[in-house]
Amino acid sequence: QVQLVESGGGLVQPGGSLRLSCAASGSISRLFATGWHRQAPGKQREVVARITSGGSTNYADSVKGRFTISMDSAKNSVSLQMNSLKPEDTAVYYCNADVEAWEYGAYRRKSYWGQGTPVTVSS
Asked: At 33, which helix (H) or strand (E)?
């Protein structure tokens, strides 16, 4: 069973920085893409950033120039460096991974989610 474990969330003042990390465990044979999503209270979950195994990245317009996503395929991990944080970045951040893993007697490609880590930007 593939599991994603996030870490690094917390409380930070506006203008500050945080680094989120996510480690995937399980019988993973291939990591196709990973990303971070967030969900603020009363709002729908939205994509923040994604990165493919080839290194292609995409960012939400609201975080371009402030957030940087990186992936370590060898370690099946992804990180999100968040700088110049704003109060509107406050949300629960979820890690997502599109992987091929051994499950129920075969290699299967599925999307998995972490449990979420809260980020609060406030003075």
From this structure: strand 28-39
Residue 85 backbone dihedrals phi, psi, to 5 degrees: -65, 145
Q: pLDDT confidence of 118, banded at 50, 70, 90?
A: very high
Q: Which of 52, 54, 84 is nearest to 67 (CA)?
A: 84
For residue 73, give Cα distances in angstroms to 10, 44, 56, 70, 92: 26, 29, 13, 10, 24
Handedness of CA 116, 11, 89, 74 (dihedral sign): negative
**What's the Rg (C-alpha) of the chain?**
14
Provide the CA 94 distance to its chain's centre, in angstroms: 5
pLDDT, average across residues 14-18: 98
Token pair in block for residue 107: 């290699």
Amino acid 73: pLDDT: 86
The total of other beta-carbon atoms located within 10 Å of residue 95's CB is: 27
